[in-house]
UniProtKB/TrEMBL annotation:
<keyword id="KW-0418">Kinase</keyword>
<dbReference type="InterPro" id="IPR036890">
    <property type="entry name" value="HATPase_C_sf"/>
</dbReference>
<dbReference type="InterPro" id="IPR000182">
    <property type="entry name" value="GNAT_dom"/>
</dbReference>
<feature type="domain" description="N-acetyltransferase">
    <location>
        <begin position="157"/>
        <end position="320"/>
    </location>
</feature>
<keyword id="KW-0808">Transferase</keyword>
<dbReference type="Pfam" id="PF00583">
    <property type="entry name" value="Acetyltransf_1"/>
</dbReference>
<dbReference type="InterPro" id="IPR016181">
    <property type="entry name" value="Acyl_CoA_acyltransferase"/>
</dbReference>
<dbReference type="GO" id="GO:0016301">
    <property type="term" value="F:kinase activity"/>
</dbReference>
<protein>
    <submittedName>
        <fullName>Anti-sigma regulatory factor (Ser/Thr protein kinase)</fullName>
    </submittedName>
</protein>
<dbReference type="GO" id="GO:0016747">
    <property type="term" value="F:acyltransferase activity, transferring groups other than amino-acyl groups"/>
</dbReference>
Length: 486
């Protein structure tokens, strides 16, 4: 959930805003002490903005967002330029010169888990403060004996929709099946599973033996900005694989998604192996993109694989028929995009552009950073004259933060995409694929920059379309002189 606030640089707004943040933080799962620390950090930040960022009247924007594991506040303002690197707090300056410059930022950094500053040029300044939500790991709830005891052989299986009461059994099933290697860390915390279900962030099914032991789990995570979902959490206990459990769960999930009115489902299938891709293909999912190095290296239990960042294939299952579509296809990628659409059963008409499109001054761009995975997605919601300049500024900031995988999503329903692609290629972006209905029920072209070498021989893809996309990307990298391993 996200909450947006627009505040004036008036000292009278500070206390009500801080009180609201405190109450919000408690409601989202922080203890009263942690919420007070978070609110105090926010107080320090916006007080500095109100008192020092503007010469005259102005306004700034606050975005509150929560996930299952953390709270984040983003503050964006267009006040006077400021470089925090030139105002670092120094205890020596305090003792020797009575100089407290930078003390406010030092206080904020000590009260939160992460404090991030982004200078965005003409787009202003952005501050982010992050506080982790502390939940109990499944290993803190159950004993080693309870965790290591394997489910008995079953005579039969029962499938049912997941409820909050299933959370502990799901976390135990994840731990029993994967140890500590499952990539979605939230799944080891029953309280986070409960919160996700309670907030409608996901829905799923659980399979139990005739003795009531959980041996299968599969869930759809709802997209935050479009009416689609990700088949993103799945586990079948090793001893019970090959019994038709995966088939049973996938069919149930697709039926549930249709009943909920979702427009489509997608999967991010890792290329360490092709098992997930094969399952997706069996149920009608079509490959639309290859996202290089999306996750950091992790050892997958039962698989030996190259120690490099993990790429994913985007597989998409349309749940509502779209037979024809008129969009703008960039010249560089029009043929492969047509093939991807054709594979989805969609006949595409490429709209010609005879003159430069009229653009507003400001673009609408969102930046999604995952520091744990070392990746960032730039989502262009609306093109503007400043788009390329803003993307360049974001790239510069992301490079400084050592973000490894950077991806940009471009809407295909506006003619400017044809002008934007050649310019983005000059910045180092290459093709990734099609992201159907990914934001606001619109189709997007994804391009990518990976700042680590990959050995393409260890990127395993299954479908013919995924193989074509992989070859296309590999050729583009070779043509652009992008270094690779191997």
């Amino acid at each position: 959930m996200e909450i947006s606030l627009k505040l004036e640089n008036d000292i009278r707004v500070i206390q009500p805003a801080v009180d609201f943040v405190y109450r919000w933080a408690v409601d989202c799962g922080l203890s009263e002490k942690e919420a007070q620390e978070f609110a105090t950090a926010f107080d320090e930040l916006i007080t500095d903005i109100v008192l020092f960022a503007f010469e005259d009247k102005g306004e700034f924007f606050v975005l509150l967002s929560d996930s299952l594991s953390q709270l984040e506040i983003t503050v964006h303002e267009l006040g006077e330029p400021f470089d925090p690197e030139r105002h670092r707090y120094s205890i020596q300056k305090v003792l020797n010169e009575n100089n407290f410059d930078g003390a406010g930022f030092e206080v904020i950094g000590n009260l939160v888990d992460d404090f991030i500053y982004l200078y965005k040029g003409r787009a202003g300044k952005e501050f982010r403060i992050i506080k982790e939500i502390k939940h109990k790991h499944i290993t803190q709830i159950l004993t080693e004996k309870q965790l290591s005891t394997e489910p008995e052989k079953a005579v039969g299986y029962q499938i049912s929709p997941v409820t909050e009461e299933d959370a502990e059994d799901i976390a135990r099933l994840i731990y029993r099946s994967y140890g500590y290697t499952y990539p979605k860390e939230d799944m080891y915390y029953p309280d986070r599973i409960v919160n996700a279900l309670r907030q409608g962030k996901k829905f799923g099914v659980i399979v139990r033996t005739d003795r009531g032991e959980a041996v299968g789990y599969f869930a759809v995570i709802m997209s935050t900005d479009s009416n689609i979902g990700e088949v993103g959490e799945v586990v079948v206990f090793p001893r019970h694989r090959g019994k038709g459990i995966m088939k049973m769960m996938m069919k149930a999930l697709i039926d549930m998604a249709k009943n909920k009115g979702l427009l489509g489902l997608f999967g991010e299938a890792v290329t360490v192996h092709t098992i997930s891709q094969k399952v997706n293909a069996k149920y009608g999912f079509k490959s639309t993109a290859l996202v290089l190095g999306f996750f950091p290296y992790a050892k997958y239990k039962g698989f030996e694989h190259k120690q490099q960042r993990i790429s994913v294939v985007i597989d998409f299952l349309p749940l509502k028929e779209r037979k024809q579509l008129k969009i703008y296809l960039p010249e560089e990628y029009k043929n492969i995009l047509k093939d991807i659409y054709r594979n989805l059963g969609i006949d595409v008409e490429n709209i010609p552009v005879r003159k430069s499109p009229q653009l507003k001054e400001r673009s609408k761009i969102e930046l999604q950073i995952n520091y744990r995975f070392g990746n960032a997605v730039i989502v262009v919601k609306k093109y503007g004259k400043d788009m390329l300049d803003r993307v360049a500024k974001k790239l510069e900031a992301l490079y400084k933060k050592d973000i490894k995988g950077i991806y940009i999503d471009l809407p295909l329903d506006h003619p400017y995409v044809k002008q934007a692609v050649p310019q983005l290629k000059k910045m180092g972006f290459i093709f990734s694929g099609l992201m159907p209905l990914f934001h606001n029920e619109r189709d997007f072209l994804r391009m990518q920059i990976l700042r680590e070498k990959l050995d393409f021989r260890h990127i395993n893809v299954f479908s013919d379309m995924a193989k074509r996309i992989k070859r296309f990307i590999h050729r583009e990298m070779n043509k652009n002189g992008i270094p690779q391993k191997g």
